Amino acid sequence: MLRQSRQRSARRRVPQQIDLFAENAPTIGGMPAWFGLPMETQAALTTLITRLILDHAGKRRMGSTRDGHDL
Description:
Blueprint: H1 2-12, H2 39-62
């Protein structure tokens, strides 16, 4: 019986990936869908997200040892 409850709780903890760019994407907390945003806002957000990803990737690279392991 204990094994079944562990399996169920493990399944519940798996996060669901939401496609934020789908035309029928659910809105979260009143946030408008991507396609409902003005083009200028989409462009600004794309630039900011790109910068965030590149900055994060650069920090991981600087924090790695020669064999690729994090410090």
